[in-house]
Write a structure and sequence with these properties.
The structure holds two protein chains of two kinds.
Chain A lengths: L5 H6 L9 H23 L4 H6 L6 H12 L2 H14 L1 H11 L1 H8 L1 H7 L4 H5 L5 H35 L3 H49 L4 H12 L13 H14 L4 H4 L8 H33 L1 H7 L6 H50 L6 H25 L7 H23 L5 H20 L2 H5 L17 H18 L3 H16 L5
Helix pairs in contact in A: 2-11, 2-17, 4-11, 4-15, 5-6, 5-15, 5-17, 6-15, 7-13, 7-15, 8-15, 8-23, 10-11, 10-17, 10-18, 10-19, 10-20, 11-15, 11-17, 11-18, 12-15, 13-19, 15-16, 15-17, 17-18, 19-20, 19-22, 20-22
Chain B lengths: L4 H6 L1 H34 L1 H5 L11 H39 L2
Helix pairs in contact in B: 2-4
Amino acid sequence: MPPVTEQAAGAIQTSLGHPTLPSIAFFLVIVAITLVITYWAAKRTKTTKEFYAAGRSVSAFQNGLALAGDYMSAASFLGIAGMVALKGYDGMIYAVGWLVGWPALMFLVAEPLRNLGKYTFADVVAFRLKQTPVRIAAAIGGILTVLFYTIAQMVGSGSLIKLMFGLPYEVAEVLVGVIMLAYVLFGGMLATTWVQIIKAVLLLFGVSVMMVIVLAKFNFSPGELYSAVVTQYGQGALEPGGLITSPVDAISLGLALMFGLLGLPHILQRFFTVPDAKAARTSVLYATGFIGYFYIIIPIVGFGAAALVGRQVITSIDKGGNMAAPLLAEFLGGTPFLGFIAAVAFATILAVVAGLTLAAASSFSHDIYVHVIKGGTCTEQEEVRASKIATLLFGIVAVCLGILFKGQNVAFMVGLAFAIACSANFPALILSIFWKRFTTAGAVCSILTGAFLAVGLIIISPTVWVDVFKNPKGSELFALKNPAIVSMTASFVVGWIVSLVTKDEVAQQKFEDEKIRTYLGVGAE
Amino acid sequence: MQKNVRDLLESKEFKGLVTKRASVSIVLLVFLFVSYYGFILLIGFDKSFLAQKISETGVTTIGIPLAVAVILAAWFLTVIYVVWANMVYDPEVRRLRALLLGK
């Protein structure tokens, strides 16, 4: 049955794709406010502790918002709304998966991380192991994760900005690069945190307003909204469709989403910005609340877009459905509301890329430059300088990669980032904190196994082998779309076996001392 | 009274604290696994269950409130952990810290 969208299609004459006065005005206001904050933060950012960790002065509530800001990317805002609009209930299933890592993060690593770490998650992995080899391995895992995540964000942002403002792709890339570099370079973690907070508040506010107006159109009854969706697209819109066909595949993706979160360097770094373990724990409570709320209301926006704007109009603007939320905003509140939502999406991109850049730069300067090249001895000024150079370099690399991958299918790269995070970073982190027998050799082998297996298996999986390389369907060498169930297990097994056959007496002795810091916070930074 | 580190690490109280934290974490993690992977497996093995309608007159399927319930359950587990940590874990940590560091 063809969808009944003539009435909606006739009503919409979109100004999407053209810079409008409201969108430019909102965008300029957001950029102006964030730059003022950066100026304020720059005066408070002199030492390494201030640059990497905002002087550990961020409150639990602020960090909760900033964590939510780091996690709610433009891809998840626009992508999940679009998925619900086009595929219905499958989009909701997908949204649930993005939340469930947060409780695991709280139960397993939030507090030990805060008690043991200084600036990067490698501090925690390397706490009682030999610094040089473990730092190098952890930096490889961390930087690979951030790199793939950044490419996905940059390529996505170029296309989104082009769709919303009509700016050429390359100009959009450079614009994102320059503004976010201003935040990170001058304001460090303090400015980045406040950019995240502002963006999270704007995003939650914008989506809430959309939800309320959508529900108001259906007498505040979700049932009526669903009826309108079913009338147009059939009952199938509210039933599970083709997203989960193989349970093993679904479990593997679920593992990657859940434990990948526990290995994302830019998320883990946030726990060093709060004063103590209690604040670390409480900030996850807030973050889970905000993100959970976000993923509960996003489907209403998606269904609202399907019912009010129509699938045909949405796909005519962008096949993937990414413009469902902006189109709905325009339908509900005209050009001004569209301008607001577009500006918020832009701010979201800036904030997420800034957080990723800071995490990558910290890994370069703190783990590689200070601990490997300088052997752990380095003055405060030298390290701040190194971190700023690393920030600038990573920013330039991000823009170049964004332009290089223009028009490529990079959707798999977020999945890949999560696969590496849960296979390379997470097992080493958890074993180092909780298992006494874990050795330096075990850590290095576990990280490298996880990283290379995750990358290798995803290349020969249908995700890349068929969808990106265009090989015939069924010719893939590895059947699962996400390799986490294999690569994460292998990383744990390798870490365990290598630790059992090698000796690391220093590491075992230090484990006892580490415990009073892990559990009681005695000696924590 | 000040204790030395070795005594404290060997003490029953400290070991009890470590075990207690591990059990609470693991139990909550099991609940999280059961709710999320239970949901995923239900979709994998029995799509028709989620496709049932809640009421005779409406169109809303069981799947919709169930997805919301999985999110709420995940958040509720974090609330349980924070309440436990604030009421049981933190006072215990404060007491042991005082023993170790003196008042």
